[in-house]
Amino acid sequence: MWFFAVGQGDAVLVETPGGKHVLIDGGPDRTVLTKVGQTLPPWKRRLDALVLTHPDADHVTGLAAVLERYAVDVVYESGRRGGSGADRFLAEWDVRRESVRAGDTFELDGVRFDVLWPDYDPRAFASGNAASVVLRLTFGETSILLTGDIEKAEERALAAALPPTDVLKIAHHGSATSSDPAFLDAAQPAFAVVQAGEGNAFGHPVPLVVDRLRQRGIRLWRTDADGDVVLRAAGGEPILEARPLPF
To answer: In terms of Cα–Cα distance, which of 47, 154, 153 is closest to 145?
Structure first.
């Protein structure tokens, strides 16, 4: 799994043991296209799935460039609509789209993708962040939690039944709106990853969140400081390392 450094935005690429690829979000610009091209085999021009956690520009904009270059089997999304142009370019490329809710699941080569959120109609949420698709990936004994931009209320709702996880993608780029102490205590990650842009105007990740992770002994990786972060797992303890790609 690659946590791409795409500036102030999210983009995560999952590669299964059988060589299938799932891209989760696309960042704020075309940078993700270069990153994907550097990690996929040069002959591959198809992604097995895209997941759009929510249609904010810093998560969806780069997907337009990806769809220009790669065929995509299916796009999983919450069904929440936004003003970032996601509906327009997805319609242009006639991509199959499936709305997902808590309890849905799909599996590729033994990698299981469980949808934990949203748990009801995403149109009823006050914000697109609150309706983000939250995924828990498991492969053998390895577990990874990807949280989109959910905020404290959603984290607290999840915490009640959340199993421990090895790796947590910190919600909302390390904003103070997320990383609730009760949620972190329920998730119990050994590692955390923040995707944020170097020198971003929001100060992400904020010191409060960094301190909460440090107090719990959670090893933090940051794309603003470490560049691209790669996670490897064979079904046991995951290995994370900073491996900045050339571009």
So the answer is: 154
Q: What is the 3-state secondary structure (H, E, C) of 132-155?
A: CCEEEEEECCEEEEECCCCCHHHH
What does the pLDDT average to over 132-147? Answer: 97
Report d(CA 113, CA 107) in Å as an integer: 6
**Rounded CA separation 159/161 (Å):** 6
Confidence bin at 94 (pLDDT 50/70/90): confident
8-state DSSP, 173: G
Whether 49 and 97 have beta carbons less than 8 Å apart is answered as: no
Quote the mean pLDDT of the chain: 93
What is the number of other CB atoms lying within 10 angstroms of the CB of residue 195?
30
Predicted TM-score (pTM) of the model is 0.95
3.40.50.1820, 3.40.1280.10, 3.90.650.10, 3.60.15.10: CATH of 2-242:
3.60.15.10
Residue 209 sits at φ, ψ, to 5 deg, of -70, -45
Average pLDDT of the residues in 85-107:
84
